[in-house]
Each structure stands twice: as C-alpha cells, then as structure tokens.
Design a protein that fits this description.
By secondary structure, the protein is an alpha/beta fold. Helices cover 39% and strands 16% of the residues.
Length: 381
C-alpha cells in the first residue's frame, strides 16, 4: 500500500483557518489529518509541499519510519512548522491504517481504555460578575471542570498584567464561592505573564481556589518554570506549545507540569503523542489534550484519549462560535454529548470529509489580535 498523493488545504472554516491534509494510497484508501500551527497555515502547507516528493511511493504502513524520515531528513531537525506538518501527515497515515484494517485508530493503539471521553468547558466571559454567572450556568448544564481564559477575547488591545491578575484573582475567588468545592476550576493565562506576575497571581487567592493554572508564562525556559514552581503550589497545565517529546521531557522529568497539554496536531501526530503520554504516565501525570482546532483534530484527539490510561479531560472547542461551515465540510464529525464525547467504533478516525466542500473553500489571511502594555510595548496575545 503505497502513498500515491498528498494534498494540503489551508482553508477558512467560518471563523478561522484550518489546515487539512489528504493522503491517498494506490489501494484507493484516503486518510485525513490536520495541522495545529494556528495563524501560520501557509508555512505548514509549504513544509508539506516539501515532504510530498520523497513521501510519494513510500509504504503507507511504515508510519514510524516515515515519522523518523520527516523529522531527521534534514540537518535542522524539528521545529514547530516541521512537526505541525508531520502531525497532519502522521494522523492521516493512522486514519489510512484504521480504514485498511476496518477498525478505529484507538484499536491499533491498544484498544479503548474508557467508555467515553470526559471534557472540560471554557468560559470566555469578562472577569467579574459575568464570569461567575457564566460558570454557574455551566455547572447547571452538568460541567464539572470549568476553565476561565484571560477574559478579553473580544476586548481591548491594551493589557496591563498587574491589573489583570488582580481582577482575575478576585473573580476566581468569587467563582469558587459560587460553584462550591466539587467543581474543578482553572484558568489559562495564554502565557502573558512574567514569573513575578504569575507568582503574585497565585498568592492573591486563598488555597484551593483553583485546581490548575495553565500556561502562565512562556515555555522556552524550564528554569523559569522551576523558579515559579518554588513560589507557588497550584498545579500547572503546560504543553500546548511543545513540538516534540524532547520539549516535554524537562517539564515531565522536572515535575514542572501536572497536566500534560499534548496537542496531537502540533507535537507529531499519534506516533509522538503516544510516547509523550507514556512518559507522563511514568511520573503519574495525566494528559489534558489541547484541542482548539477543527473536527479532524478533535476526531484524532478522541482516538488518542480513548487509548491512553492517564487522561484527565479533553478540551472542547469552539467557544460558542458558529460552526455551520463544519456541517458542510464534515458530514460526519464528533458531536459533544452533554459534557463528553463517545468513543467511536467506525474505521480510522471516524470522520467523513466532503472533499468538494474542502476544495471549494478558500484561505483568508488572519492574524491574532495584538496586545500592548500601557506603556505601548508589545506583549503576548
């Protein structure tokens, strides 16, 4: 079973671009994958175009060997653009393998370890009374793990870290009082803070206010996270920016992350994600997958979640936006069942793609909102 064609589709899907990859074989089986490098889809498409000539003609069943060739086939190994492209191709190859054997991908990964995939929900409400009210409403809908974000998704371009942490701490303390102790509560700071700011945020809240703090600072320096770890005792959820097991290694081995935020569409597909999950398991760390992308990413993430023993919750996306475009592109796709996903039993990823709809879609240039500190200097989105 040889790879006969690879096509890449960076396309606008209603509210964002997604980057899909189609891998075809000479046996007539087609697999689909998705890349996760949001906002840089054209760069990933260029990398896939570069991979195509030496992948065509290769045995599609040699997934691990093809992973190694894509990663090690140049002097400059790895990097987010390369592994994002690899992720999409790897996911598509596993989709092909499942379809060839007539089983879901999780069966090839050892079989399912749970009957359904528990999920967490995110409130994008402004920090304050609106956040508390939204979280209470989510609890009433049945959610038992709720995350806040930075609270300004559609708001101002100015971001004052000190003011933001004071407001967020007060809002989360009020949310905990309203939700009670049984709800798991967390916040994602989108790596906007410095070490001192993140520590100050932690110290402003009574113990037990939140159950996890996600991405408070950038991830390039394990030493910075080690310093922050010594200043506060709130569990960290880290990893969505990582692009390999080597990126994860110091955070897992150094006990710096308590929830591994593996993004299967960035880290190298199933082949790499399963290794990282096993690495986390040896340190009693649960996986909390990052899934902010399209339905192919969600389908792959569900298969991954089904097959690993150390899962906490899967991310739910999107956050209340219009997904009618998905209905046209993906006639069969994962659907949330209240607060969880069912484990699919269809062959491959268990998703159907309308190729005509995908080919008809166009790419639209998009950039994340810019954020500036009060003094005019640029800060993270």
């Amino acid at each position: 079973m040889r790879i006969s064609d690879i096509s890449v589709f960076p396309v606008w899907a209603g509210y964002r671009n997604i980057c899909l990859v189609r891998v075809a074989t000479d046996d007539g089986i087609v697999g689909w994958g998705e890349s996760g490098l949001s906002g840089r889809e054209l760069a990933v498409a260029g990398m896939i175009d570069h991979f195509r000539p030496f992948l065509i003609g290769k045995d599609a069943r040699h997934i691990g060997a093809l992973w190694q060739e894509m990663y090690r086939g140049q002097y400059f190994e790895g990097g987010r653009t390369i592994t994002a492209a690899m992720s999409a191709i790897d996911i598509a190859l596993w989709d092909i393998a499942g379809k060839a054997h007539g089983v879901p991908v999780h069966q090839l990964l050892g079989g399912k370890q749970r009957d359904h995939i528990p999920c967490f929900i995110t409130s994008t409400a402004e920090h304050g009374d609106a956040l508390v009210a939204d979280m209470v409403a989510l609890k009433e809908q049945g959610w038992d793990c709720i995350r806040a974000t930075v609270g300004d998704a559609a708001g101002p371009t100015t971001y004052d870290p000190r003011r933001a942490i004071a407001i967020a701490a007060a809002a989360l303390e009020a949310a905990r009082a309203a939700l009670g102790s049984e709800i798991c509560l967390g916040i994602d700071f989108h790596h906007r803070l410095q070490v001192a700011e993140a520590a100050s945020f932690c110290h402003r809240m009574p113990p037990g206010t939140i159950d996890f703090l996600e991405e408070p600072i950038r991830q390039q320096s394990p030493g910075a996270y080690s310093a922050l770890r010594q200043m506060c005792d709130i569990p960290f959820a880290i990893g969505e920016e990582f692009a390999s097991k080597w990126d994860f290694a110091p955070y897992i081995e150094g006990k710096l992350t308590n929830f591994a935020r593996i993004d299967i569409c960035n880290v190298g597909g199933f082949t790499e994600a399963m290794k990282i999950a096993a690495m986390a398991e040896t340190h009693y760390i649960d996986v909390m997958p990052h899934d902010p992308l399209g339905p192919v990413c969600t389908a792959a993430t569900i298969q991954f979640c089904a097959a690993i023993p150390n899962l906490s919750w899967c991310e739910v996306d999107p956050y209340g936006v219009d997904t009618s475009v998905y209905d046209r592109m993906f006639p069969k796709r994962p659907q949330l069942e209240t607060t969880r996903f069912a484990v699919p039993d269809a062959p491959g990823l268990g998703i159907e793609v309308d190729e005509d709809a995908v080919r008809a879609a166009k790419f639209e240039f998009w950039e994340p909102p810019r954020r500036y500190k009060p003094d005019g200097s640029y800060t993270n989105w």
